[in-house]
Amino acid sequence: MKRRKASAFDVFNVLFMLLMMLVMIYPLLNVLATSLSRPSDITAGLVSWYPRGFNLVGYQYIIEDGQLFIGYRNTILYAAVGTLLTLTLTSLAAYALTHKELVGRRVLTFYWAVTMFFGGGLVPTYLVIKDLGLLDTFLVMVLPGCVGAYTLFVFRSFMLALPSELMEAAYIDGAGEWRVWSTIVLPLSKPLLATYALFTIVGHWNSWFNAMLYLKNANLYPLQLYLRRIVVQNDLSGTYADSASGALIASGAMTPQNAQMAAIVLTILPIMLIYPYIQKYFVKGVMIGSLKG
C-alpha cells in the first residue's frame, strides 16, 4: 500500500500542535519545579522548567496545615452530594417534560429556557440565599446549582429518543411513573448519567466563587478556596501556627513560592491522575449535547 506523502499543511499542523503542547505544559513544569527548588534559587529567579536542588519543606508545611485535608474532605462531600442531587433532580424533571400530557409543559419548558439566557444577577441571588437561611451552610454549595437548564434539555432530548415501546409495555403491566423512571429510563440513560456525573464532579472540584461569596466558616471551605487564599491572597496562615511559616521563611528553609506551588500540585494531582482514564467520557458528553436535539 502506497503511503501518502506528508503535505506542507501536515508538517505545519504537527509543529503547531507541538508548540501548543509546550506552551501549555511549561506552566505546569514551572509550578512543579518551583515547589521542589531551593529557596535561594527561587529568590534569584533561576528556576524555569526543572527543579534547582531538592526541597520538600513547602510540601511539609502544606501537609501539616490541617486546612488542606479539611478542603479535600469538604470538596469530596460537595462533589458527591451535589452530583447525586443534580442527576436525580435533573433526570426527574427531564422525564416529566417528556410527557406531552403534562399540564403546563410548554410554560415550564419556556421558564427553564429563559434561565439559559438571563440570570437573576449576583445581588438578587445572594439575597434569596440569605432569606432562605443557606448562608454559611453545607447546602449552599450543593443546592443553588443542582439543576441547570442546558443539562435538563440534554436529558430531555436523550429520554425522548428512548424506545417508547418499553415504557408502554411497562404501563400495560401496571407500572407507575416512578417505577418506569427508576427501572427503565435510568438504566437506559447510564451513558448520559455517567458523562454528566463526571462534568458535575469536576465542576464541584474547581468551584471557589460561590464559596467565597457564601461561606465564612473556614471549616466549610472547599479545596479551591483554600488554594486561592494561599496563592492569590499570599496568606500562609491557617490552622498551623502563623509563626511556623514565618520561622521557615526567616531561616531560609523555604520561600512563600515553595508553599504556594506545593499547594497547587497537591490540589491538581488527583484530577491529573484520573483525567486520562475519563477523558473519553468528556468527549462523549460533548457529542451527546451536540447530536441530541
TrEMBL record:
<dbReference type="InterPro" id="IPR035906">
    <property type="entry name" value="MetI-like_sf"/>
</dbReference>
<keyword id="KW-0472">Membrane</keyword>
<feature type="transmembrane region" description="Helical">
    <location>
        <begin position="76"/>
        <end position="97"/>
    </location>
</feature>
<dbReference type="GO" id="GO:0005886">
    <property type="term" value="C:plasma membrane"/>
</dbReference>
<dbReference type="GO" id="GO:0055085">
    <property type="term" value="P:transmembrane transport"/>
</dbReference>
<feature type="transmembrane region" description="Helical">
    <location>
        <begin position="12"/>
        <end position="29"/>
    </location>
</feature>
<comment type="similarity">
    <text>Belongs to the binding-protein-dependent transport system permease family.</text>
</comment>
<feature type="transmembrane region" description="Helical">
    <location>
        <begin position="183"/>
        <end position="205"/>
    </location>
</feature>
<feature type="transmembrane region" description="Helical">
    <location>
        <begin position="109"/>
        <end position="129"/>
    </location>
</feature>
<protein>
    <submittedName>
        <fullName>Carbohydrate ABC transporter permease</fullName>
    </submittedName>
</protein>
<dbReference type="InterPro" id="IPR000515">
    <property type="entry name" value="MetI-like"/>
</dbReference>
<feature type="domain" description="ABC transmembrane type-1">
    <location>
        <begin position="72"/>
        <end position="279"/>
    </location>
</feature>
<keyword id="KW-1003">Cell membrane</keyword>
<feature type="transmembrane region" description="Helical">
    <location>
        <begin position="141"/>
        <end position="162"/>
    </location>
</feature>
<keyword id="KW-0812">Transmembrane</keyword>
<keyword id="KW-0813">Transport</keyword>
<keyword id="KW-1133">Transmembrane helix</keyword>
<dbReference type="Pfam" id="PF00528">
    <property type="entry name" value="BPD_transp_1"/>
</dbReference>
<feature type="transmembrane region" description="Helical">
    <location>
        <begin position="259"/>
        <end position="278"/>
    </location>
</feature>
